Here is the input.
Amino acid sequence: LVEDILDIIESQEMEAQLLVASIKNNFDVLEIIRAGAHAITVPADIIKELLVHHQTEDAQAAFNKSLTVKG
Here is the structure.
């Protein structure tokens, strides 16, 4: 749908930008960005999901543990 709307904006030579809202999950965010939307509103909980990754959390925990272990 985003791509269709962007195609209409371009084909009609409209001076408009597409703002996408009402995002429900982090996969929607990635799809909308890939589709080329000009702007997107994202709820804070979804932004947090996008910024947190289990491998990053694991690496941070291992690093913190290495700081407390002195040999």
About this structure: DSSP finds four helices and two strands in the chain. The mean pLDDT is 90.
